[in-house]
Structure formats: structure tokens, C-alpha cells
Amino acid sequence: MLEIPPFLTLDDVDFQGKSVLVRVDINSPIDPQTGEILDASRIEAHSTTIKTLENSKVVILAHQGRPGSSDFTTLEEHSRVLSKYLEKEVEYIDDIIGPAARDRISRLKPGEVLMLENVRFLAEETLEFPPEKHANSWLVRKLSPLFDLFVNDAFAAAHRPHASLTGFPEVLPAVAGRVMEKELRALSRVFADWSRKKRVFVIGGAKIGDMVKFIDTLLTQKIANQVLLGGLVSLLFLKASGFSLGEPTESVLESRGASKYIDLAKDLLQRYSSKIALPTDVAENQGGERKEINVSNLPAQNPIMDVGGETIDRYKAEIASADIVVLKGPAGVIEEPAFSLGTKEILRAVAHSKALSIVGGGHESAILNELGLTDKIDYVSSGGGALIAFLSGETLPAVEALARAAARMRGA
Ligand code: 3PG
After folding, report:
1. 3-state DSSP: the chain helix, strand, coil percent, rounded to 5?
2. Which ligand 1 atom sits nearest the alpha carbon of residue 362?
3. 167 lines ligand 1 (CB under 6 A)
């Protein structure tokens, strides 16, 4: 298990009146039809950091979605939502590094907040380069001369070696914001209990590529004793174990690049069959209604959108006997009430278990709030992928970048 490298926070620097670039993670679920932000909990969380900087000239940098996905959109709506939580204007500009953005940044006054456009509109942002190469990106070269301080508050994106996360700390003084600080301190506390015996990971969601790789690490490194699968990732494993899921579901899986990961999923099933639990029944969407079918009756004619009742009961029993439970990613399509059953029931079981409970990801925290169960979870993280990456022993490039900046700043 990894240590968290030493980093500095807002308590260690003078930011009054200064120009501060704040990288946040306000990547939120978006209604594909209306463009409406469906859950604003990440935006609300980062408002704490922005409030701390109330006498600074604050510029916010963030991403939303990935190029090609239905939630890849501008940050105009995000700026309006943030305004609401800050109770003051957040100006939005549809530019990132161009003359309009740079001119506006250079004229900001203390107390003003400006949100730049979705940083993933820049092709170089998501290139997986080392920090010193990102320090030479156009993003960093154009913006860094305009700032005194870089604040990274984007814990949920800390596992991404992207320019906006690792490039700026190479050239600017850089510290963790309040969300990042809180998350890293909570992770340190988790480590104190990490030697507890039965560690169950409940993994779902739609990011199948990331998750199949993490499942490999979690089992190979013996970080998890048991992995319970839901969401699209469980459908990938059902397909890998020979089930034909039906055309509507297979085409969704394929749109997520399933064929690239199927061999690894097959290999994992061979090596760890007793440690990977798959759904034994699923719920398909029959005209908006939930129709449960046993996997022996697959293929399904309609899209599969949740795990079934028998699977929920099996997973609840595993969770009840766990010493540590880590949950990341919904078990079904939670945007549709009929298919949020699996996620809700499993979260209820986690909340009521005696285990040390850790829940990661924006969707899950929104559901915990809705169920009034947030207080029953030991650690609710805003990060999904970042949390699992860290618990599976990976270094988080954005946190490493903050640590390098801290060492440089302490030496100065
Ligand atoms: C997340 O929601 O997990 C983070 O914002 C990272 O998003 P990504 O998986 O698109 O990089």
C-alpha cells in the first residue's frame, strides 16, 4: 500500500490579493437531452475552496466529459451553479488559452471569480505525457505567466496524468485545495485500518476499460479478497464468461470499447473465478418497466439496465461478512428510477454493515444523500477512479506533482 507524499495546502501560502488558478473536478452527470446538470455535489464541494480564496483573483479550470461522449459540453451551466453556492457572480468565458481569456484574467480584481471553458476542448490536455513535457504544453505556457499560485482541488481526476493536473505544479507554486486535502487526509486514515481481513470491493459503472485493469491489480496484489461486479463492467464479464447478452446490450458495451478488454476479462475469470462475483440475474428495460431474468435465460431482448433481486441478496450477504467494503460505480442505470434499485439496495447494505465502509464517485454520493445514509459511511470520496487507483497501489500523478512542488517550495 502506498504512502501519501507530503504536500502543502492553502494554510501554507499567502494568497490574499494574488492571482490563483484553481483546477477543480466538477465533471457531473448531464442529462443528454436537456444538458441539465443532474447532480451538483462536486460543484458544491469545491465552493469551500473558492470561498477560502475570497480575496484572491480566482480562475477556475475544469473538464466535463470526454471528447465524443454525450456529456462532453461547455462549462457555462457549471458556472451558474457555482455562483449559486458561492452566492456571488462566477463569470464564464468560452475560451481557455486564447487572447480573450488571457486578457480577462489579467484584468481580474481581488474577489472576482472567472471560469474558463472545458479544458478538454484542448487536444493536448488528455495526452498522457510526463509532467515536464506537460509543463511545456501550450496550456501551461500561455496561462502560467498570469498566475502567482496553482491550487489543485481535483482529487477525482488525480489519477489522470493530464496537462492541467501535472503541468502547472512544475512551473508555479502549487498546493492542495480543501477538497484534495480532505480526501488525502481521509485516505491516510483508511490506511490505519487497512490490515483488516476480508476486503470486499463492489465495482460497477460504465468505465469498463479502467475498471477491468483495476480488478486485475486488486486481485493480483491481493488488495481485494472478493470483487462483486455490477453495472456495465459486470456485463463485460458476463460476456467474457460466454453469455450472449442480446443485441441492445452488446451494442452499448461495444460503444464503450468492450472488445479491447474482453480477453483480459476472460483471463481474470480463469485466474480468479472464486473471487469474482457476477450477477446471476439481471433487470432488462421492457418499455420502461423492470423485467428480471435469470442469466441462464439470456440473451435479453431489451437493454440490461440493472442487477436482479437474487444478485442483490447474494451481494448483501458478502457485504455483511466483510471487514472492509469499498464501493465504486453504480450497479445499474441510476438515472432511471426503476433501475436504481440494485445501487440503492447495495448502498443500504454497505451503510448498515459493520465493515469499514468507503464509497467513491459522484453518482454514489448523490444517492447516499437521497437515501439519507451519507453519515453511515466511514469515508465518502468524491473520486471514483482516483480512489480505486490509489487503493490498488497506483501513484496519483496529480498528487505526486503537488509533492514535487512542495519539496521545491520548502527548499526555496
Ligand atoms: C471522474 O469523474 O472520474 C473524473 O472526473 C475523471 O474523469 P475521466 O474518467 O473522464 O478522466
Report:
1. 45, 15, 40
2. 2
3. no
Pocket mutation for ligand 1, best pick of 128, 160, 381, 382 (most atoms within 8 Å of C-beta): 160
CATH architecture designation of domain 10-185+395-411: 3-Layer(aba) Sandwich (3.40)
Q: Do the domains 10-185+395-411 and 193-381 sit in the same CATH topology, yes or no?
A: yes
Split the chain (412 residues) into runs of 10 and give each run's mean pLDDT: 85 98 95 88 96 98 94 97 98 98 98 98 97 98 98 98 98 98 89 84 95 95 95 98 97 95 98 97 97 98 98 98 95 93 98 95 86 95 91 92 97 74
List the chain domain ranges.
Answer: 10-185+395-411, 193-381
Q: Determine the angle formed by the axes of helices 231-240 and 258-271, rounding to 10 degrees.
A: 70
Provide the CATH topology of domain 193-381.
Answer: Rossmann fold (3.40.50)
* DSSP H/E element including 324: strand 324-328
128 lines ligand 1 (CB under 6 A): no
